[in-house]
Predict the 3D structure of the following.
Amino acid sequence: MSRPVDAVIFDWGGTLTPWHTVDMPEQWRVYAREIHGIPIGSPDVPAEDLAAAHDLAERLLAVESDAWARGRQEHSSARIETILAEAGLDPGHDRAHLALAAYEGFWEPHTWTDPQVRPVWEGLHERGVRVGVLSNTIWSRAYHRRIFERDKVLDLIDADVYSSEIGHVKPHPEAFRIACAAVGVQPARAVYVGDRLYEDVHGPQQVGMRAIWVPHSDLPSSQVVDVDAVPDARAHELLDILGIIDRWQGHGTDDVV
Ligand SMILES: [Mg+2]
């Protein structure tokens, strides 16, 4: 199993960020309340404003859920702008920026980078291995990079690819080819790390990448696609990745799965 590794590419949610169970309907209630200018906890909001915000939040959740389902079934990607438009929101709405800020505020506690990311990425660079990110996401590159910058790891990323800016989501093989090209390595010499067997193990193995599974996430059953995929290795914490890469580089004593 010793075969040189030139790059390790990482999933984001549940891998670089510790897994959180997130109240998905609430993200859109926060957004919709801001669109309708409803202060949280205010007793004096007209009933029609509350109803309009409720309806918008329900539409946004339904459109987003459909987009993720299409991703699982057809491997097509979606962007937050198209989700907002499909839910009937005018992109020029004068409160759209405030609503997006409120939405991002809702997500903030769930986006923190695992403290082991920096030492792992530094360790990979010390070994001459490049670091990439490939995420299934509706969010923009700019937003993801702001999160990495906030957590002081952006400087360690050699290339990052977000499904919102390509046509496909994982496990589509093209997503992995694009990510390998972005870091400038052949798939056979690249490794993928993620928390989902279908998207993050089966996906990269289709193009000849090796896959390290981080089995931490308590995934909702509605998001799990049954697949017969066996990871090339498991990491019980992110720091385990360095030892796995050392073994694959031929610096260890045994091949470990
Ligand atoms: Mg994930």
User: Anything to note?
Assistant: Residues 7-18+112-248 form a domain with the Rossmann fold fold (CATH 3.40.50.1000).
